[in-house]
Amino acid sequence: MTVKSDLNKNNFLPLIKVLLGENIVHNFLRVNEFEGKTYFNKENFEELAKWILLFHLLALQSNLNDNKDNSSKFKKSEIEKEIIKNVKDNFEKYNELIAKADANGYDFIKFKSELDKAPDENEKVKKPTKKRNKK
Asked: At residue 36, what are phi and psi to the nearest 5 degrees?
């Protein structure tokens, strides 16, 4: 599966994996070794993740319509609902990514191996949402 097709499916995790292999990103994240462990900078990682999230969210509307065929383009109200849904999903993924980095103590090797693991469906449990009383 390619990074571009994953991005069209609202999944920016493969992009993070690819970027983590680039020397320029290593320099930005200040990847360094200390006492046998390879660490990266928390603040710079969060900044990188924010930028990726931002670029991904900016492309949402065009990606939504690009994925549909010409005869079944989204209506304006459908686009708004899809954008809201995708923004929420992507923000959750962003938070999970930051939490994984934190849980691995910003150890670069551990974090990269955590990203390579297949996602466990049981791992993500939706919290019950509050229902609003209609008056």
From this structure: 85, 0
Asked whether the predicted pLDDT for residue 6 surpasses 50, the reply is no
Question: How far from the centroid of its chain's Cα atoms is residue 89's Cα?
Answer: 9
CA distance 8 to 56: 9
Residues in CB range of 108: below 8 A, 6 or more apart:
20, 29, 31, 38, 39, 40
DSSP-derived secondary structure letter, 92: H
Helix (H) or strand (E) holding 126, with range, is: none
Q: 59-72 b/e with 16+ CB inside 10 Å = b?
A: ebeebbeeeeeeee
Name residue 60's amino acid. L
Alpha helix segments (H runs only) across the chain: 3-8, 13-19, 23-29, 42-58, 60-66, 76-103, 108-116
> What's the pTM?
0.70
**With helix as H, strand as E and coil as C, how does 96-120 read?**
HHHHHHHHCCCEHHHHHHHHHCCCC
